[in-house]
Each structure stands twice: as C-alpha cells, then as structure tokens.
Amino acid sequence: MQYFRLAGARGAHLIAGSRPAMPVRIDDTSDVLLVVDVQNAFVPRGNLAVARGDEVVAIANRVARAFANVVLTQDWHPAGHVSFASSHPGRRPFEKIRLAYGDQILWPDHCVQGTPDAELHAGLSIPHAQLILRKGYHPGVDSYSAFLEADRTTSTGLAGYLAARGLRRAFLCGLATDFCVAWSATDARRLGFEALVIEDACRAIDTEGVARRRVARNGGHGRRPDPRR
Ligand SMILES: [Zn+2]
After folding, report:
1. Residues 6+ apart with CB under 8 A from 28
2. How far is the CA of 113 from the centre of ligand 1 (A)?
3. How far apart are the CA of 89 and the centre of ligand 1, in A?
4. Which protein residues have their CB within 5 A of the ion that is ligand 1?
C-alpha cells in the first residue's frame, strides 16, 4: 500500500511519506478520489464518532478540487443490522463476535437509513462528485469496504463502475482509516486497481483505544479487552 500526504495549500499536490518526497500528478482520465463515509455518524456527536473526524471534511473538500473524478461512499444500514451490538442480546459495542462470514466487531447503532446520522456531513462540498455509493444495506452482512462486503464475495458494484469508466488509480480519504478506508484500499489493490491512501485526509476509530478508555472509566473494573481478539 502506498501512503501519501498532502502538500501545498490547494491539496493538488500529494507527496509520498517516504523520502525523497515524491510529487504525484493527478490524471483526469484514469484517477479517481474515493471519499469514504464522511457522514454525521463518524464525526464528534455522531453515533459512532471518530475522534477529530470532522477535520477531514474541509480537507476532503480541498483535495477533491484537484480531481475530475470523485466517488463518495455512504455507510447505509437498515435498522436492526447485524453489525449493531443492539441486535445481539447481552453484547456491547466494540465486542467481537463470530458470524457465518467471519469475525464481526459490534458497533453502536449507526448510519441507519434515512436518519440524520446517516447523512453525508453538511460541510462536505464536492458538487462535482459523480457517484454516491451506498454500502452495508444487506441486513445480515457488514461492508467496511467500498468494493466487497464482509462476506468477501458480494460486490458493491464499484469495481465494475470504475473499470467501465477507465478509472484505474484510486486515491482514498475519509473515515475511518483503520476500517472503511483501509479495507477499501486493500480491496482496490486486490481487484487490480492502484490504491493510494492520503494519510492526513483520514482519521481512525482505534477500537482498542475505545475499549481501554472504557476500562479506565470503570476504574479498572470490568472485563479487560483481550489483546488476542
Ligand atoms: Zn457501518
């Protein structure tokens, strides 16, 4: 995976984090920016708030101006979705369970279809975005990735869309670095696209940090997060 950082006020210049810094030229015919899940749920006061998640809004707006092609993604769950802790009696958010398709972290209810929590952040201003791709709408399957759902077989259709438009190199920004951005970037590469993560245009959830803070809040009582899980 290649990770890039922003340079310059316009966001038109991306540089590799490694040295020597490598400027990246955006190609309007083959490059696309994926703005991942910049939704009310994932900013402070949202149902699944990412620390400083709101900081990516202005950055995404700025970066998007450098791209002719932009796709926005939107986490979009039905009520009672399998990824919600509330759908599993006795379970709490950020616990991990085993489902038919593999391990699933349980989340607070978030991005329920048609609710304000699921709306794209009001500050997002990317009018030239061509597609809003919704994911996670199957009741029994989660989808961190913008390409493949968590069963690792159901396609969201994004790969076909990009291929049909001749878009071969995806730059990614948004929320959250360690889940939807990372899974989307990994799948993009697996499916034959180039993928570049714009590191400083992302913010992370850090579920282990959440669990640690919960233990600390409880005065050290309660079940400690198992580092092997
Ligand atoms: Zn979700």
Report:
1. 67, 68, 69
2. 11
3. 19
4. 75, 136
